[in-house]
Records
---
Amino acid sequence: MNTTNRQSGFSLLETIVSFLILGFVSVTLMSLILYASKGYIMVRSNIDTAGKVQVAMDRIRLELENMQSLTSLATGVGANSLTFVDHNGVSRTLDLDPGAATNLRLGGNLLLDGVTSLVLARSCGNQDGYSGGANDLASVTVAITVTGGIPTYTLSAYPRSIMNCP
């Protein structure tokens, strides 16, 4: 009787190759999951920041559209501020907090944090139709840049009242 002693299973080389392939696939998959989670966190943070900026810009637009007069507009490095009289006759200032230069304030109250740049401008023109009235305030432009790689947000507010351009 001729019997061969044959063992079934994998050879050592096959086992090592399969473990190497499994390790490579595992590392690739974990890297993919890590980058996807970092991307999700970054997008989520940008969405939150964009929402805060949108709320602040809506508030600024509302205040500037309803202002009764523009008292002053200071521009330049470290001097961006806008002072106006609101619809209740109260003087309010839009500026960066000198104590924490990344805090945007409206009337002394924190409106938005993480601001890296505030640019203010105004345009004048003949708004009431009278000749010689080219010194009426036509619009106020506010541009805000915040930390985190978000682009600059810009709004132009058109006051409802006709007022002199300072």
Note: The beta strands are 69-74, 81-85, 91-96, 104-106, 109-112, 115-125, 136-146, 153-157.
---
Amino acid sequence: MTDPHAYWSEITAEGPIYGRDHVGRAILGRFDSPFIKAALDWTAARALRIADALDPEPGVAWCPVGALRTVSDAVIAEGDVPTRLREWADSDTDRRDAYRQLQGGDPWALIVADHSGLYSFTIWPVSARASPSPSAPARRGRHRKHIPELVQAAP
């Protein structure tokens, strides 16, 4: 019998810090679940949210007119994180492959980069087996606590 697992999801971003000569790293989200599908669904939802933040649709209500501009083809040629994230989140095949990889006990990662930075979406199995605390006293024999019976009051 295999050990029970939970699944840890984490999203990080790395990129140049404006006006500085170094790269910063930020954790954009963390999630854990006993279910692979829940971890993948959370990751896909965050991928779409990040894609929409990096590349919003023209004319979105929260953005002032003229604040957004079209990115040149040369910049897109370096890589297009929002498009890649949307493709992965919308691909049943890619998500099914990730599911199978995790089900096999292996970690999974989607790493994408462009001019805005490097984004890592990772999920890996972690042991979820409960073990007694080293400071917990050892119990011997079978002890039952008295559990009071709940009685419903008559109407």
Note: The CA atoms of residues 29 and 115 lie 21 Å apart.
